[in-house]
Amino acid sequence: MARSAHDKKGLLSEEALTKFRVELLVKGTIVIGSQTLFTQDELARINQLQAEIPEEEVRLGDAGDSHNVFVKRVRVDPPGRSPSNVDGAAPRQIIDLLERKDRGFALKTILGASSDYVIRRCQLHRMPPGSFVGIHLDAESDPDFEYSVIVQLAQDFEGGEFVVYPSAYEQQVFRPPFGAVLVTTCRLRHEVKPVSAGERRSLVYFCSKRSGTNRRVIESSTSGHEAS
Ligand SMILES: [Fe+2]
């Protein structure tokens, strides 16, 4: 991204934000370059904070899909309940960082909202070699999820491509660099391919114009969940 596309704070100009907005509408997925929505200092801060959050292994997604990924939960969105932060200072501080005014404004413009977006769920993913996230639809976790935002927190890994399937006949492969942010609609199926070397780490959050209870209807067993 050309330096001229940024304002003095490193965030995108309104013109660039509008371009991303159009691209997101047309393609369903965009990648915003490193040092744009998050500075190196902010990424380092997220790294510090995540160390304080306990980790669990997730092997089954919300829709019965197959996963193998280590998850640290920051904000949860259980069916029939309102979103809530996980206990502790670190989850709250991560959400505060994500919601900082300039970044909130930039995302709101890209997502095309006249009202504010809320973060309904947020978590960190760690994927050592062999980990993957099977094909799934984020909207199956919560029908009000509109966009997922994925911040890449690692750089030295192989595999782990983010693949979106806009239709049965197309696939789009993304490998965002460290610090880049991938935004994708929650209405397209996608997966994360197996990591073959190193460790892929990301921060994922799901945005919606709607706050309040998760309107998902549970059909069978519940479990961990899923995402990117
Ligand atoms: Fe996902």
Automatic annotation (TrEMBL):
Record's keyword annotation contains S-adenosyl-L-methionine: no
Domain Fe2OG dioxygenase: 118-209
InterPro entries in the cross-refs: Oxoglu/Fe-dep_dioxygenase_dom, Pro_4_hyd_alph, Pro_4_hyd_alph_FE2OG_OXY
Molecular functions (GO terms): dioxygenase activity; iron ion binding; L-ascorbic acid binding; oxidoreductase activity, acting on paired donors, with incorporation or reduction of molecular oxygen
Keywords in alphabetical order: Dioxygenase, Iron, Metal-binding, Oxidoreductase, Vitamin C
Coiled-coil portions: none
Cofactor: L-ascorbate
Gene3D superfamilies with a match to the protein in the record: q2cbj1_9rhob like domain (2.60.120.620)
Pfam families: 2OG-FeII_Oxy_3
UniProt-recorded name of the protein: 2OG-Fe(II) oxygenase
